[in-house]
Amino acid sequence: MEAAQALGHEVWITQAQNLSVVNSQAWALLEKVQLKPVQLSQGHWVVSPQWYSVSDAVLCSLADMDAVFMRTDPPVTIPYLYATYILDYINPEQTLVINAPRGLRMANEKMYALQFQEVIPETIVSQDKSVIRKFVEQQGAAVIKPLGGKAGEGILLIEPSDRNFNSLVEISTQRGREPVMVQAYLPAAKDGDKRIILLNGKPIGAVNRIPTGKEFRGNMAVGGRVAATEITLQDHKICTAVGPKLQQDGLYFVGIDVIGGYLTEVNVTSPTGIREIDRLNGTCLGKEVITWVETMSHEP
Ligand SMILES: Nc1ncnc2c1ncn2[C@@H]1O[C@H](COP(=O)(O)OP(=O)(O)O)[C@@H](O)[C@H]1O
Ligand SMILES: [Mg+2]
Predict the structure, then answer these.
(1) Are the C-beta atoms of residues 4 and 288 closer than 8 Å to each other?
(2) Hey, what domains does the chain have and what are their CATH numbers?
(3) CA-nearest residue, atom 23 of ligand 1
(4) Which of 103, 122, 157, 190 has a CB 3.0–4.6 Å from the CB of 184, allowing a cystine?
(5) pLDDT for 98-140, tens place per residue?
(6) Is-catalytic flag, 133?
(7) Catalytic: 195?
(8) How much distance in Å is there from the Cα of 212 to the middle of ligand 2?
(9) Angle 110-4-231 (CA atoms, 0-180°, nearest 5)?
């Protein structure tokens, strides 16, 4: 939003519950927002207390917009899916929707990675305790992930000898009612979980998140320390594998997670990290994204 404003665009905001379809077109109650840009001060982004103001709400056709970003946090709930069905009633020839509603419906952030078998760690998805136990015994140690989680929520490190093994599987699968992802534990996770931002299938920046203290998860939300990093040859290999599929699915703005050279997650709903990358690398990825959106909007 800040980058769009800096590049001379109007920025309007809405929420899923304020979307409608009228005459087969998507409409929204919109508020025009004015932002005060953040400032970098001693290595931190600093924001003024009154960092934004909004106008009164007006009902507008989303066809009047050049682009619409949907950036709702997971979990992907039924109302989330309904919002994507409403955004289907935006003419994509006229208004770019980021990410494409069909892509948001198709891509489960954990399971999307499974189609790139050559770049992921050993992984299963199951709700069956015996299948999960067999896999964890083969791997020695594994990570259980709820399919709808984010920011480290519900991520468990598990070993076959864990005295809570059965209980942990029961809790995470809601006693066999919900499948979970179970993935080989990658010891390289202690050196960091790299977030790579892809724009239209190409990497534009990366940041490492390193677990600190007594926590095995690297997510920023659970105290992971961010550090500057590079996009390596292996990272490019992963992006080359994933990029064309992302483009095909209309997943234009995505954050992938890479641990020890393996792809572990494809974040499509509301990927974070560009502020950290900008701070550490002196880039301005927001402007890069909006400049790309401008080129897409100007295409006939
Ligand atoms: N296979 C793995 N081996 C070791 N640690 C992992 C593995 N997968 C995830 N983690 C740790 O758990 C954290 C969260 O995992 P992730 O799959 O990115 O889910 P989310 O970020 O949506 O909660 C990562 O930042 C990483 O520290
Ligand atoms: Mg993640």
Answers:
(1) no
(2) 2-98 (3.40.50.20), 122-185 (3.30.1490.20), 188-290 (3.30.470.20)
(3) 152
(4) 122
(5) 999 999 999 999 999 999 999 999 999 999 999 999 999 999 9
(6) no
(7) yes
(8) 16
(9) 45
